[in-house]
Structure formats: C-alpha cells, structure tokens
Amino acid sequence: MAMSSRKVVELFYDVVSPYSWLGFEIMCRYRNVWNIDLRLRPAFLGGIMQGSGNKPPGLVPNKFLYMTKDLNRLAQYFDVPLQAPSDPFEAMFQKGSLSAMRFVAAVQEREKDGDKQVEQLSRELWRRIWSQDKDITESASLSEAAVKAGLPASEIEELLKLSTSKQIKDKLKSTTQEALDHGAFGFPLVVCHVNGKAEMFFGSDRFELMAHCIGENWMGPQPGKSSAKL
C-alpha cells in the first residue's frame, strides 16, 4: 500500500506515566499490523496536569489503591514488566521526568532515520523507573539508559548537553502545548488523523474504539501471538 494511504497516529507520552508505557508498547506492536504511520511524541506530563488543571489519580487514596491493583493486572495482560517503584510518590512527583523527557526530545531531534533510538531509549527509561526502581533524573542514569538503548557512547555526552539547551526545552514545551491543544488532560494521548479530522483518545484502554475509528481490527494486546488458547 502507498505510504500516503497510511493514517497518521501520534502518541504523546511521558516515561513518568505507567499507563503510557502500556499504551506505547501496544502502539509499537501494532505499528506494522495496522496501516498506520506511528509518530512518537515525547512530551511532559507535568505541563499537561498544570495546563489542564487536572490532579494526579494517585492523590485520591482509593484511586491510588485501585491503580496499584489495576497496574499489576495490566502488566500481566499486556505482558509488560511493570512494577511500581518502592516510593511511587517520590519517583513521580518529587523527582519527576523533566530531564528524562528533555533527553528523549534531544535524541529525537538528532535521530536521522526513523525513531528506533527514541523508541528504545523511552523503553529503557520506563524500565528504570517502572520496573527496576532506578533513578531517571541524574545524567549518569540517563547515559546508562542510552547505552542500554544502543546509542553510540560517543554521542551521549553531546546529547545530554543538547537536552539542557533552550532549543530542546522549547521543543518539549511546544509538543506538550500541542497535546493540550488537542484537549489533553493526561497521558497516554493518541491522536488519530482520520479524513482530515484529529480523533483524540486518552488512556491505555481505548484500543478497540481506536481501531474501529481508523477502520482496523483490535486483536488483543499481543497481535503477533495466535489468539487460539487451547
């Protein structure tokens, strides 16, 4: 099929968000199953919460308890090695992900062909915060993730420098603003461009509806595996 007939699907995400990890892995699994052109849009969830006046679900005790159970069940169902950090509040709200997302934005700015580096780096950062209970704020942590993601060691120092530049800070801000302009109040946010219209979906539980809107089939969280369970 011609590239032009592929529907553009944008995924706005932040590695501080566990639900974004689930949404990200699903979209990466489906990018070659559905006739879509997936665009990864690293952004800053803190800016979304502020800009939309939303409050994190973790601040409501019952929601926080539910979220913990929900994420455990989802990790199994989606087959993503998600495990909450020992202190989720510290990881999410005190330490946050601003430097991490600026680093991802810097890598995206420099990556020439496709988005393999951005995909792998994002995944490594999620692994650190949402699987291995490791830091994602220090430069050493970021470069460790970059090495694991297969980025050339010789470029990492320069990418870290670039990530603190005005250019990259502004890039992350404008991507975050773009998400707000689509009506974002949290992540993951998927925007499907269908017949000249942008259809916005929030969360990692709207894939059946999304598939319906773009004229594709939802085949569960692991489309590569046969659904026949004997």
What does this molecule look like?
By secondary structure, the protein is of the alpha+beta class. It has a single domain (7-214), classed as Glutaredoxin, CATH 3.40.30. 52% of the residues lie in helices and 11% in strands. It is built from 10 helices and 4 strands; from the N terminus they run βαβααααααααββα. The protein has helices at residues 18-30, 45-52, 61-78, 88-95, 98-110, 116-130, 139-148, 153-163, 166-181, 207-214; strands at residues 7-13, 36-42, 189-194, 197-202. It has a 4-stranded mixed sheet with strand order 2-1-3-4, with helices on both faces. α1 (18-30) links the parallel β1 (7-13) and β2. α1 (18-30) runs parallel beside α3 (61-78), α5 runs antiparallel to α6 (116-130) and α7 (139-148) packs across α8 (153-163).
Keywords:
230 residues; alpha+beta; Glutaredoxin; 4-stranded mixed β-sheet; 10 helices; 11% strand
Summarize the structure.
The chain has 230 residues and is α+β, with helices and mostly antiparallel strands. The chain has ten helices and four strands.
